[in-house]
UniProtKB/TrEMBL annotation:
It comes from Candidatus Parabacteroides intestinipullorum. Residues 1-19 form the signal peptide. Keywords: Signal. InterPro entries: EF_Hand_1_Ca_BS, FN3_dom, Ig-like_fold, PAPs_N, PCMD, Purple_acid_Pase-like_N, Put_CMD_sf. It comes from the Bacteria. Residues 339-546 form the Putative carbohydrate metabolism domain. Gene3D superfamilies: BT2081, beta-jelly-roll domain (2.60.120.890), Immunoglobulins (2.60.40.10). Pfam families: PCMD, Pur_ac_phosph_N. SUPFAM superfamilies: Purple acid phosphatase, N-terminal domain. Residues 258-320 form the Purple acid phosphatase N-terminal domain. This is PCMD domain-containing protein. One of its GO terms (molecular function) is acid phosphatase activity.
Length: 548
């Protein structure tokens, strides 16, 4: 009886142990795509930057490709994840060979086995599931641009209808008096990499419509196109143009007869003297032209006109944008609340932020005012040991708050002007990198190397939210589509006396007005990963925006 009771109790204990739940959660590690490239990649129409547009908040990627590739079997040439050890899941139906598609990221095809197959059908958006301890779906959209160019001598304008496959070309009768002798320069109806028959440059008689057959690159299906040429009494220009004014420059875009190069002139309103835009600053493509006016003054109204074949168009006007000075760029104004120092005047709307609110009560301020300056006061950014992690000295346009033991930052302050560079004075004494944060992947190899400072400036359409929690890291991406202009400086060189530095801004769009300015400086470049050398110091003084 006792033996039976013992077996019964053991059985109950065994059952109870099976019912115990493991309540210890897996760590939260957000996975994202940090870089992706495909064959045939190009910029969107009207843009110059071919880099993929990655929205980490939405989990989306948008790319553009030319017509030299088959979008149904598009080869991915680079796919880098954050963290690097995350795995890739993809629908087998969209893979050229699902069994050969890599499950880990790759910086280039050279890092994959020769048997690997990264071709994917991107005719529709593709979902990739990135996995750490959790799954994160990402949608990748590839847009193929079929670039069909029409360029005919004497052309004033044209209409190309892809649906009906009709092309209507208008020419200037003074330049093309005889429609039986039309000179076609370019008519790539099959796309930039496609083919057309007969050769359009050998067809001249357009007293009636002509028929051409075009096929896309890599395809044997020929489509019929009809091309019509008509004379129009419109002059060499449509008489219309658009202008986008910055502070010291403006871009004029308009229409021009094919084969003609316009002369663009401008002057300050009220002046009698015209300035001619240098020929090097005027470009033409088919029936369009772009002229860049430089050396302008801010907050000034200008008149301009476009002249073709000695005939001047009507005068039009624009007003340049006012230059805006950088608030407290001299680093003279500081205030204190308890133990925390702020690089802003007391009672003023804060413009600059630092990580001081998260560090002052534990290890002291990371960024402070110093009399060791070019003039008056300067900012001293110092990397410190925060016991359980590293604290990098930093300053940025935005605000800081604590998110647990980590930082939640917002980059960006209201701004709507067009500087050409950021000028400042700096000193830097780097230490050896002796602290490495968690979940940093390949960056762990930086230990023992010389620390680096970093300063960057960006003009953007939006404010950026930054999380430096290793389990939920979301950092600033300079390639984000919201960035209008960007420039950066990184150095591990020791500079013991103040040195002037100018960081030029590279504008990626010349037709968008910024809404925010982002300036970030750190005594340890990888401070967001809690990587750096304790004792690294960066001094900043006399920061100003340059308009040239």
């Amino acid at each position: 009886m006792i033996k039976k009771l013992t077996y019964f109790l053991l059985g109950c204990l065994g059952f109870a142990s099976c019912a115990i739940e493991n309540d210890i959660p897996y760590p939260l590690r957000v996975a994202s795509i940090s870089s992706i490239e495909v064959e045939g990649q190009r910029a969107a129409e009207g843009a110059t930057d071919a880099t993929a547009v990655i929205d980490k908040a939405a989990g989306t990627v948008t790319l553009y490709v030319n017509d030299s590739v088959d979008i149904t079997r598009l080869k991915i040439t680079r796919l880098v994840l954050d963290p690097r050890e995350a795995t890739i899941g993809i629908d087998s139906a969209v893979c050229d060979n699902y069994g050969k598609f890599p499950t880990n990221d790759f910086a280039s095809l050279d890092s994959l086995p020769l048997s690997a197959n990264t071709r994917v059908d991107f005719s529709e958006p593709v979902t990739m599931t990135l996995s750490t301890y959790q799954d994160y779906p990402w949608k990748v959209t590839v847009n193929q641009i079929i670039q069909r160019d029409v360029d005919v001598y004497g052309m004033v304008n044209h209409v190309l209808d892809v649906n009906s496959r009709n092309v209507i070309i208008y020419v200037n009768p003074k330049e093309v008096p005889d429609l039986s002798n039309v000179q076609i320069k370019k008519l790539n109806l099959g796309g930039e990499y496609g083919k057309v028959t007969p050769d359009p440059t050998t067809v001249h008689d357009f007293t009636k419509s002509q028929t051409f057959y075009a096929a896309r690159h890599g395809e044997d299906t020929w489509q019929e196109w009809k091309v019509f040429v008509y004379q129009t009494e419109e002059g060499g220009s449509t008489g219309s143009s658009d202008v986008f004014a910055m502070v010291t420059r403006a871009t004029v875009k308009g229409s021009v007869q094919s084969g003609k190069t316009p002369t663009v002139e401008y002057r300050k309103q009220g002046s009698s003297d015209w300035n001619t835009v240098p020929a090097a600053n005027v470009t033409t493509s088919g029936t369009s032209f772009t002229a860049t006016l430089t050396g302008l003054s801010g907050s000034t109204t200008y008149n301009y006109r476009v002249t073709i074949d000695g005939v001047a168009g009507s005068e039009q006007s624009f007003t340049t944008v006012a230059p805006v000075a950088l608030e407290n760029g001299s680093m003279e104004n500081w205030s204190q609340d308890g133990k925390i120092w702020y690089p802003n005047a007391a009672g003023a709307n804060p413009f600059w932020g630092t990580g001081n609110p998260g560090a002052a009560n534990f290890i002291g301020n990371l960024t402070t005012a110093t009399d060791e300056s070019v003039k008056g006061k300067a900012a001293l950014l110092e990397t410190k040991d925060a016991i359980i992690k590293l604290g990098a000295g930093n300053i940025f346009t935005g605000d800081f708050e604590l998110e647990g033991l980590n930082g939640l930052l917002h980059f960006g302050r209201s701004f709507s002007s067009f500087p050409t560079s950021l000028r400042l004075y700096y000193k830097y004494t780097p230490a050896t990198i002796d602290m490495i944060g968690d979940n940093v992947g390949d960056l762990a190899s930086l230990k023992g190397q010389t620390d680096m400072c970093q300063i960057y400036i960006a003009l953007s359409d939006k404010i950026y939210e930054i999380h430096n929690d290793p389990k939920n890291r979301q950092l600033f991406d300079p390639n984000d589509s919201g960035i209008i202009a960007y420039g950066e400086f990184t150095s591990s060189q020791s500079v013991t006396s103040y040195k002037q530095l100018e960081i030029p801004l590279e504008y990626r769009a010349t037709n968008r007005t910024p809404k925010y300015i982002i300036i970030v400086a750190s005594s340890s470049k990888y401070g967001d990963y809690y990587i750096g050398g304790v004792g690294s110091k960066l001094w900043l003084d006399e920061m100003e925006l340059v308009y040239e």
